[in-house]
Amino acid sequence: MYDIVIIGGGIGGSASALRAAQNGMKALWLLGSKKTRKQSRSQWVMNLDNIVGFHEDIIKNQAIKTLQKYKQEEAVSLLQQEHYHINNRMLIKNTIQRIENDFPDVTIIDSNADSLKKMENGFEITFNDETVVAEAVVISTGVMDEHPHIQKLNKKDEWEETPKWIYPFANREQVLYCIRCEGHLTKDDRVAVIGYSNVAAELAMMLHERYGNKVTILTNGAVLDISDERYNILRHYGIEIIIEPITDLLNKGVKQLQGFVFRQNDSIKVKFALVSLGLHRVYNDLARQLNARLMDEDQPEEKRHVWINHKGETSIKGLFAVGDMAKREDEPVMKQVYTAQEYAVRAVDTIDSRRRKNMRQKILDKD
Question: Which pLDDT score is estimated for 135?
């Protein structure tokens, strides 16, 4: 029996697995498949320099000192000119390497969990036609944002409506999904906010107020649903709203987004786009198998977050949910890397505390 099974290969899963490893626990970490990892928000957040310590200069400065020590001035010059992204995928890869190298009690498998069952003294987890048991489970399977569907002529000269036109730029820090993570990158540049709701209006106002951006809201054909109060502020800030569907992108290959094209409205030039279309999916399937409590009663089941308490535990004792998929009733939980790490530690330390308490009790019972 495992002390803990961790399901999910994103930031929450990585932080949980590392904490379990460093706590000396016998753990199984199911990373998910390549397909499911691509469906996670971790795939699209490409820059983490809003977090203290997550900045390229920390490593670059150390490397430059070493190169200067050995009088490698040409290499120093090249390194100073290079820009290194620190993104979610790098953190996950590094965590896997650290655990594989230093913690043999943690088993890592590239697989989805197919089913989860509650037993009298733990849980039964099935994956790849294999079944294991664990005293506790952490699920961190994440969410996926809604992507803008753009109707654009494809190579066959046929109209094709799909979000795939936007994907290359999401991977290059030009189409953004998190204003707290990446909003500062847009300072003084032209930005499009793709959305139609009060949330889109709030983000547009925030970009203007924080970073002095020239902002345009693109509803991409959706009906505008913004309050009169917010609409008046948008007008005051000179934020234009374009209702027409997007029919093409202005771009330099797949390397640089330059703007958006519409059927009748003049095209606009932007350097960044911030997507504000809400959630496409909360990956709560395993929690639902156990009838764990869900939040967001007004939403369809596939968009409902998993209820957790202050320790990250769900309504099912021993089942914890970490990261963007989880929500507390008593206070908001920010959807951030550092929040996922904090709740991962809360969850795993709670499981470890119970494990050690049981170990001690068994000793006392024998006496």
Answer: 97
Question: Which helix (H) or strand (E) segment is 235 a member of?
Answer: helix 228-236
What average pLDDT does the segment 35-43 reach? 70
Higher pLDDT, 33 or 102: 102
Return the exposure string of 39-53: e unless at least 16 CB atoms fall within 10 Å of the residue's CB, then b: bbbbbbbbbbbbeee
pLDDT confidence tier of residue 53, bands split at 50, 70 and 90? confident
Model pTM greater than 0.85?
A: yes
**Whole-number pLDDT of residue 56:** 84
Structure tokens at 59: 């490593």
Asked if pLDDT for residue 44 goes beyond 70, the answer is no
Domain with 112 in it: 2-48+87-144+280-366
> How many alpha carbons fall within 13 Å on the CB side of residue 354?
16
221: left (phi over 0), alpha (psi -120 to 50) or beta: left
- Last-in-domain residue among 277, 307, 339: 277
- Nearest Cα to Cα of residue 45 among 87, 93, 8: 87
User: What size, in residues, is the chain?
Assistant: 367
- In CATH, what number is assigned to the domain containing residue 305? 3.50.50.60
DSSP string, 238-299: T-EEE-SPEEEEEEETTTEEEEEEESSSPPEE-SEEEE---EEEE--HHHHHTT--BS-TTS
Q: Supply the DSSP symbol for 222.
A: P
Residue 187 tokens read as: 């300072």
In-domain check, residue 348? yes
- Cα distance between residue 41 and residue 56, in whole Å: 22
Residue 191 · residue 213 · CB < 8 Å: yes
On whether both 181 and 307 belong to a single domain, the answer is no
Q: What's the CA gap between 100 and 92, in Å, rounded?
A: 12
Q: How many CA atoms lie within 13 A of 50 on its CB side?
A: 15
